[in-house]
Amino acid sequence: MARIALIGAGGKMGGRITDNLLKTDHRVAHVEVGEAGIAALGKRGLAVHPLEDALRDADAVILAVPDNRIGQVAAGIEHSLRSGTMLIVLDAAAPYAGDMPKRSDITMFVTHPCHPPIFNDETTPEAKGDFFGGIAAKQHIVCALMQGPEEHYALGEQISREIWAPVMRSHRVTVEQMAILEPVLSETVTGTCLTIIREAVDEAVKRGVPEEAARDFVLGHLNVEIAIVFQQLPNGTFSDGAKLAIEKAKPELFRPDWRRVFEPEAIRQSVLDITRH
């Protein structure tokens, strides 16, 4: 059992974490300042703890606050953290940007969900509808021990598995690798490509294709094409016509140097955009 201070406990993310921590034997102090968040905790029958009281004897402090507020909140609690306390952040942006407390005597742990995979074995309506994860659908997670003794990793991973439950695989990465995964891989590249796909659907509709037909067609093709690209189908491959279309369209749709978004300077700028907006 650990003593956990959950800051932002009544928010959207904090509420999910609160619900999962209630299933554990940890002693959790819920910290919330927003009226809506306080009301949300009240509906769960949970009291709000004063910040200083929550931090006083906490083994771990979870910052369930937006990326652009993590630096501000972390600075506000820096001098109230006991030596040896684990500060858990739910995204790599602020740590990568250098927004964490400059204290060598505390542990800093970063964790983030992979979210439920497209290819899964979920059978219940609740799990099938849990696209984000952390409620009913199983998901993988990534964890990074940014700073602190190696023996603290086990506690950080345990708490991570509990707040993102149900969890399948837990991948250990560095903060730098986590920043490559998000924002670059998941948002800069994948999110942008999917946004373009949606805009392409809208363009097809604009040119006369029935909206429902365009949606059904692209979602079905996404399913099989993702299975092909990520080798989920034995001997699955694109048709010769599809290969030709991809070969000709790729230089039209993407700059030849698009991989520069993975360069350290590009990652840092993306992270600064997220944390400073």
UniProtKB/TrEMBL annotation:
Record domain Pyrroline-5-carboxylate reductase catalytic N-terminal: where:
3-88
One GO BP = tyrosine biosynthetic process
Stretch forming the signal peptide: none
A molecular function (GO) term: NAD+ binding
Gene3D superfamilies xref list: NAD(P)-binding Rossmann-like Domain, Semialdehyde dehydrogenase-like, C-terminal
In which domain of life is the source organism classified? Bacteria
What InterPro entries does the database record attribute to this sequence?
Answer: NAD(P)-bd_dom_sf, P5C_Rdtase_cat_N, PGDH_C, Preph/Arog_dehydrog, Semialdehyde_DH-like_C
- Domain called Phosphogluconate dehydrogenase (decarboxylating) C-terminal: residue spans: 120-275
Q: Which UniProt keywords apply?
A: Oxidoreductase
Q: Which Pfam families match?
A: F420_oxidored, PGDH_C
- Its name, as the record gives it, is Semialdehyde dehydrogenase
What species is given as this protein's source? Lichenicoccus roseus
